[in-house]
Amino acid sequence: MHGKIPSKLTRAIEGGAEDDAIDLRQVQDFLHRRWKLILACAACVMVLAFLITLTIAPRYTAMAQVLLEPRKEKIFGGDNILPELNLETGNVDSQLSVIQSTNLLRRVVEKEKLTQDPEFGPSAHTGLLGFLAGLLRSDEADKSGSGAGSGIPPEVLNSIKKLKDALEVARVNRTYVLSISVTSEDPAKAARLANAVADAYVVDQLDARYDAAKRASVWLAERMEGLQDQLRQSEEAVSRFRKEHNLQGTGGENKVTISEQQLSELNGKLISARADAAEKRAKYEQAAQVTSRGGNVQAIPDVVHSSVISELRRQQAEVARKEADLLAHYGDQHPLLINARAERRDIDRSIAEEIKRILINLKNDYDVAKSREASLQNSLDQVTGLTGQDNGVAVRLRELERINASNKTLFENFMSRAKITQEQSSFEEREARVISPATKPISPSFPKKGVVEALAGLVGLLLGTGGAIALDMLNSGFSSSREVEDKLGYPVLGAIPLLAEKDRRIDGKVADPGQYLLAKPLSRYAEVVRAIRVGIQMADVDHPAKAILITSSIPSEGKSTLALSLALSAGKAGQRVLLIDGDLRHPSTSKYFGLEDKPGLVDFLTAGTPFEQIASQQLGVTVIPAGMKSQNPPDLLGSERMKRFVEKLRDVYDYIVIDSPPVEPVIDAKVLTPIVDKVVFVVRWQTTKRETAAHNTDYFASGHKLAGVALTVVDESQTPKYGAYGHYSGYYYKKYYHN
């Protein structure tokens, strides 16, 4: 027996986070289902945006570029006193505020006469709107700190504010280039104002340097006067001290006493004498060491550099050559050879005597230098003893002279700086220049129709998507069998397709669903009815149902058509079928067969009309119409006689189908529930409310009488748009059916 299918909520709880993932197929199906609405909303918003842009006055933006240039060389040498432009990041960014400052923009306003310009001048609004705008401008002026206390007229402040709103200053990437953009309704005016702001900034930089130079010159002039007086006083103090102590100088700019001059000269001579004595001592000691050790005295530097020794060595070499020649031609005892050898010995003796004389001279030179050093040291000691007496006076004099020299140096430095500063103030070196003047823009910067239309399209798509989602959420009906099972938790026996007139046309005539089922037993409609009939039997395989009740929530959901189709399908299958019209208030089945005026169920239950008079054979099934009108249909349908009547019919017929009224208006179907085996609840596609269907199906399921749900009037051309909840269209199955 069919049990209740777990609802979507139950599966979500049991399934964990698997249902949390976004199903792209559901998104695709949603777009397939609502794409017309979404595109329509996007188109409407884009058209509206286009119309709005036509009503907005276009605005144009012109841009000029200014390059900040610090001086890379000192024009006048040395360190400049005037301030230089520091191009650190923070200082460059601060130049943006300078360009947007009130003082700089005031120059532009006054130069361009913007107070008389309709766009930047006083507002043209009058009345209440003008009054409110004036109050707003006053509040903004107070907040900006540029009120009446600044001395700027209100109309100029108003123009400055409007120019500041139209002005945009930015640093180009991380370079030293600043872009100055002005937006206006007139493209020529935008370019003119952008260039005016750039020029005003360049002039402001020059003015700032000129003002700084003037202030520096004034300060230096005042300082020089004080330094000049200080220098004069220090010179007078030195001169007065010399006169008081009768100190005579040697002349020159820096005067010193005679004793000091003598001491200085003796010090210089003593130092020279000590150096000379040390040098000669070294030469003498070197020669003495070579002689005492038996070394080669001819290697002594003075011997080597002696011109006499050099000449004797030349003669010695010539005699040696001559001796060698004679020895080659004559014997050892030849007179010429003996003379040559005697001559060579004389030369050797002369060389030895000359070397001895040189060594003696070295000793004498050293003794003389030593004596001279001692003499100078004695003279220095005497002079030092004389100068020590006036040492305190000399110390004071030197102190005064140092003070004077310091004052003189400071005064000369300030005089040099003053001249440099004066030259700098007259030299207009630019630290900012316009590298790209603004030109008249061709196309407006606002509104950018392409961007506006793109944003409008995006907003329209979002609105359309939101509206489509809202429509889906507001749709209270069922879109498919899967959705019925998810929402209600009960099985769907079948989804009966919608039969349009063109589909039901047979031999040129439009057939009703019953006739169509009999004429087209292999059609999809007939197959779905058979599936419902089989599903009813499978609801309780151990006790196959014979008496079937067909009902729904509200009228016009297709319950009578389904009851008729089930009866005709079972009759076509060779079963003995009884169709009872249990809707005593609106007997649709009786009207279908033309039996609304014939005796029927009411006559049998109230007047005891024989069964043979109320039953008739129609299209292969036995039909019992509703009969005459009744004032108490629920009492008749719930009577004991009705119960016994159905029990007797079970023995005669294989299949009993009862068409009952809908549940919501009347309780007739609920009264009939105890005497039937199963109940088939009809739900119309996209029409029956979910809450209503859930409430009524739960009632029938509580007594274990609900066989399942039949979804009727399903438009299979639309169901594929509902993705997982959709049905495949009959188009995919056409080779199995003969519609």
UniProtKB/TrEMBL annotation:
The keyword Nucleotide-binding applies. Belongs to the CpsD/CapB family. Belongs to the etk/wzc family. The lineage of its organism: Bacteria, Pseudomonadati, Pseudomonadota, Alphaproteobacteria, Hyphomicrobiales. SUPFAM superfamilies: P-loop containing nucleoside triphosphate hydrolases. The chain crosses the membrane at residues 37-57. It is found in: Cell inner membrane. Residues 21-111 form the Polysaccharide chain length determinant N-terminal domain. NCBIfam families: eps_fam. InterPro entries: AAA_dom, Bact_polysacc_biosynth/exp, LPS_length_determ_N, P-loop_NTPase, Wzc-like_C. Gene3D superfamilies: P-loop containing nucleotide triphosphate hydrolases (3.40.50.300). One of its GO terms (molecular function) is ATP binding. This is non-specific protein-tyrosine kinase. Its main location: membrane. Coiled coil: none annotated. Pfam families: AAA_31, Wzz. It is a multi-pass membrane protein. GO terms for cellular component: plasma membrane. Residues 558-684 form the AAA domain. Keywords: ATP-binding, Cell inner membrane, Cell membrane, Kinase, Membrane, Nucleotide-binding, Transferase, Transmembrane, Transmembrane helix, Tyrosine-protein kinase. It comes from the Bacteria. It catalyses: L-tyrosyl-[protein] + ATP = O-phospho-L-tyrosyl-[protein] + ADP + H(+).
